[in-house]
User: Which sequence fits this backbone?
């Protein structure tokens, strides 16, 4: 008994922090419909501020006050105003991507601002962390544990009083039911929602400050782990019950410590603890039909306007657009001055589909440059871009076309790379064959992920895949016969008979061929009957199955193909680099991949290729900056999610649409004398294939 | 022998009995109406019949074959088409694509490989059937419009068309007239009659609009609180004292 308590009591502080996190998540999800993954980052920001201020000599109470009561809510309120308020009724992925972007960006931004991580051991909120204040059944309770328990109990009690005994609590519960009706009875639902954001951000901030002393140093990694545990507790609470979130968090915190205490040391024990959230998610997410959670606001708010409409409505007064407009007019005037009519002999196709022509011309120029004058280091970046482009293409199929949000795409890529590496170096397989085998095993992994998540969609699916990525990081990749932990796996460059791809330019060609083949597979599927089934499934799984589409098989199939392509991409990247370590494809990379894909364009294959190039080019550009700015890429991607909420079709498709529009106006200017401001702009013609652009 | 035969269907949600021991029979080519106040269990019955909700008890047979263990998509391919009370269209797809998807799905599997090997265009006869259905429903002019922009009336017709593709033997329509104006509802009645006339499809119609029910249906089931209140020829049932009370709330 004492032994059990000896394991359980140190678990309570963890449980408290998990519970605070979960309560914050549940509170905003129920009042605003947004599952704010950025809470992990907000917790880190508060924790970092707390420790930094103390390290600068501030008194503890002042630092805590600033970090929890000022900074936490300020960040939360800013995010609500700038971002989340706009996406309340949007589709799951449009809600998810900004919070993912912030989860990645905020900690890096905070680190850049703070300059460096304070080296002091983080202190407890109050009391002396190390001193033992009491004994419970013979188990010592330290000041650290006591302070966390007291603080948690206090704020939870405060929240319950607020919820049960004040008008605000009543209003908050009403907003959960129906924001529209609340507005009709004369209450500002937006303000009530903002209050909920402030409160839950305080919870995140407090969780961040309390978590800090549980580790020897403050590290963003620990906060993502905290977030994942918080998610698991929120799932136990069915995304709606605050008492259950508290209980779930406590149970998880205690459970993980007890498990760790009783299991024999080794790979299983060290792998099981971090994978506990995954198991919890899988067990609790598909639990009964009711848990197939839907948008809490779906019944009471109007559906979001379609994204094409949004894109059309939004007219940026950017220099680019103005410049293009002026250019258009100038060309029109010039043509009229010359008395030239519109030349009908122009290749009709080029006129009809200008974006296609421009895109292919740019692509051809890029390939030609790569094969001729591009210096070696930039060629490497481009080739890396092609490898990642392959991974992005796999996301286009899975998330763009089929609407299945995957936060474990890097795990698929990593598995492909590691299997290829092991087969090539340990078994002596030819590298190309090993790469294909890696892709095949990644496809198998895709099936394994698809099977238990068949009944999940939207946010729950995203969370389950995230948990799976963590499982892969902790259990799959460290083992010696796969990722081999820190030492990683070697993967040489391939050759076919006498043709060797060791040099940079031949390898570039190989990467290009593999990307084109992958893109071709995805395009064929997207254009064919299967593609129509995928769009139908994305639109409504229920309706798709009631017209006779075998949704199960379709999902398993599309997960397998997508994971297979990602696996080939991972092997390609590994072969390019010469070796792979698990960090190349950990869960954070999965998050970044989805964010970048969504920002640049999930809707088209061109978007995926551009995403690959942008991803590697930006990283290379930032690598030349001082180390303090190492996180700048993450910050940029995070900030780009601000534009994403306006253009969920992605930058590439947005620009393509704008370009077509301008082109059409240009043609109009050539054809219609007297073209002026009032001439109606013709419809953009190069719409992306139906709906692909609307994840 | 009846085409669809459901026996003893029961379903409860957290202590509330949505359906209690319900029997339903539909003969081939017959049109059956299901009426009842909101919350009587009509949509739940549809979901149970098609496998979208698992009933707690009961059996469903189609043409004498047990189908209550089959997944939804398989029941659909055996010849059941349905529409949804709350629209469930495929956002981003055009009207024609909705019908094409249904036509292809009812007749074949998922052609992953065929799509990869050959660029699989829709077959001419598939497109012809889509065109014919659009013509029947008066949707031809909207063929290439994405469904998000359609009026509610047109959207309901697209759902009807989607359910009709692949020549199902049984059409289950969940309040197809809700949100339609009087003229549209009348037109819907004409379309349904014409459809039955042409292809002999059996119809199960959940409907509040009693005029539409009378125009289309031969036999009417009335449910209340998950139980069968009355069944029989439409006029007899509507004259039934208990039915009037359930619908009109006491008295005459």
Assistant:
């Amino acid at each position: 008994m004492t032994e059990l308590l000896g394991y359980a009591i140190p678990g309570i502080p963890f449980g408290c922090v998990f519970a605070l996190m979960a309560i914050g998540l549940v509170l905003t999800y129920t009042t605003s419909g947004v599952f704010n993954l950025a809470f992990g980052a907000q917790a880190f920001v508060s924790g970092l501020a707390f420790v930094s201020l103390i390290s600068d000599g501030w008194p503890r109470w002042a630092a805590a006050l600033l970090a929890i009561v000022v900074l936490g809510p300020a960040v939360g309120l800013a995010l609500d105003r700038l971002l989340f308020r706009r996406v309340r009724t949007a589709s799951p992925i449009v809600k998810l991507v900004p919070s993912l972007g912030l989860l990645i960006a905020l900690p890096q931004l905070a680190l850049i601002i703070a300059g460096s991580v304070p080296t002091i051991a983080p202190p407890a909120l109050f009391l002396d962390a190390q001193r033992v204040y009491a004994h419970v059944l013979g188990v010592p309770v330290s000041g650290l544990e006591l302070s966390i328990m007291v603080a948690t109990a206090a704020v939870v009690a405060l929240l319950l009083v607020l919820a049960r005994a004040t008008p605000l609590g009543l209003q908050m519960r009403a907003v959960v039911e129906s924001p529209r009706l609340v507005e009709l009875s004369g209450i500002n639902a937006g303000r009530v929602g903002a209050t909920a954001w402030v409160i839950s951000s305080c919870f995140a901030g407090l969780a961040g400050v309390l978590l800090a002393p549980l580790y020897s140093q403050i590290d963003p990694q620990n906060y993502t782990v905290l977030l994942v545990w918080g998610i698991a507790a929120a799932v136990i609470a069915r995304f709606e019950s605050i008492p259950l979130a508290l209980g779930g968090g406590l149970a998880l915190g205690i459970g993980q410590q007890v498990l760790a205490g009783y299991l024999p040391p080794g790979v299983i024990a060290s792998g099981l603890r971090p994978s506990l959230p995954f198991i919890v998610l899988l067990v609790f997410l598909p639990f009964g039909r009711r848990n197939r959670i839907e948008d809490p606001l779906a019944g009471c708010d109007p559906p979001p306007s379609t994204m094409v409409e949004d894109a059309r409505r939004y007219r940026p007064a950017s220099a680019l657009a103005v410049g293009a407009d002026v250019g258009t007019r100038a060309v029109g005037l010039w043509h009229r001055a010359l008395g030239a009519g519109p030349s009908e002999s122009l290749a009709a196709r080029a006129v009809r589909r200008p974006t296609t022509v421009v895109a292919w011309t740019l692509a051809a120029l890029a390939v030609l440059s790569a094969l001729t004058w591009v210096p070696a280091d930039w060629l490497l970046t481009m080739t890396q871009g092609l490898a990642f482009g392959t991974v992005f293409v796999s996301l286009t199929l899975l998330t763009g076309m089929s609407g299945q949000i995957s936060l474990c795409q890097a795990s698929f890529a990593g598995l492909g790379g590691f299997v290829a590496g092991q087969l090539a170096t340990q078994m002596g397989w030819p590298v190309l064959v090993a790469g294909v085998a890696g892709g095949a095993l990644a496809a198998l992994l895709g099936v394994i992920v698809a099977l238990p998540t068949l009944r999940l969609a939207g946010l729950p699916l995203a969370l389950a895949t995230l948990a799976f990525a963590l499982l892969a990081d902790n259990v799959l990749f460290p083992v010696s016969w796969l990722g081999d932990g820190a030492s990683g796996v070697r993967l040489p460059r391939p050759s076919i008979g006498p043709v060797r791809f060791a040099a940079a330019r031949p390898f570039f060609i190989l990467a290009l061929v593999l990307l084109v083949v992958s893109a071709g597979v995805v395009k064929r599927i997207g254009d064919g009957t299967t593609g129509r089934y995928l769009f139908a499934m994305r639109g409504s799984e229920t309706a798709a199955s009631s017209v006779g589409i075998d949704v199960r098989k379709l999902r398993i199939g599309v997960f397998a193909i997508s994971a297979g392509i990602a696996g080939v991409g991972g092997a390609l990247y590994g072969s390019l680099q010469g070796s792979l370590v698990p960090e190349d494809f950990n869960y954070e990379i999965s998050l970044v991949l989805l964010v970048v894909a969504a920002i640049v364009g999930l809707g088209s294959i061109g978007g995926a290729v551009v995403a690959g190039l942008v991803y590697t080019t930006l990283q290379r550009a930032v690598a030349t900056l001082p180390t303090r700015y190492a996180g700048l890429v993450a910050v940029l991607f995070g900030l780009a999610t601000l534009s994403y909420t306006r253009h969920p079709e992605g930058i590439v498709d947005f620009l393509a649409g704008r370009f077509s529009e301008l082109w059409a106006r240009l043609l109009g200017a050539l054809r219609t004398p007297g073209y002026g401001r009032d001439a109606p702009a013709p419809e953009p013609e190069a719409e992306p294939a139906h709906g692909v652009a609307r994840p | 022998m009846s085409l669809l035969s459901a026996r003893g269907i029961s379903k409860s949600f957290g202590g509330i009995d949505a359906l209690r021991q319900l029997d339903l029979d539909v003969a081939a080519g017959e049109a059956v109406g299901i009426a009842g106040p909101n919350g009587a269990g009509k949509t739940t019955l549809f979901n149970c019949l098609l496998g979208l909700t698992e009933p707690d008890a009961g059996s469903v047979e189609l043409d004498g074959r047990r189908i209550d263990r089959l997944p939804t998509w398989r029941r659909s391919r055996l010849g059941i088409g349905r529409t949804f009370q709350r629209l469930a269209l495929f956002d981003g797809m055009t009207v024609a694509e909705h019908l094409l998807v249904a036509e292809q799905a009812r007749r074949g599997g998922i052609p992953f490989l065929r799509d990869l090997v050959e660029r699989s265009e829709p077959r001419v006869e598939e497109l012809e059937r889509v065109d014919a259905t659009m013509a029947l429903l008066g949707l031809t002019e909207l063929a290439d419009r994405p469904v998000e922009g359609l009026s509610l009336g047109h959207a309901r017709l697209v759902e009807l068309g989607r359910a009709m593709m692949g020549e199902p033997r049984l059409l289950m329509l969940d309040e197809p007239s809700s949100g339609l104006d009087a003229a549209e509802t009348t037109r819907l009645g004409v379309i349904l009659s014409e459809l039955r006339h042409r292809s002999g499809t059996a119809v199960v119609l959940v409907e509040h609009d009693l005029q539409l029910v009378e125009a289309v249906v031969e036999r009417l089931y009335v449910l209340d609180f998950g139980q069968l209140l009355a069944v029989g020829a439409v006029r007899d049932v509507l004259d039934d004292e208990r039915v009037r009370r359930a619908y009109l709330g006491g008295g005459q």
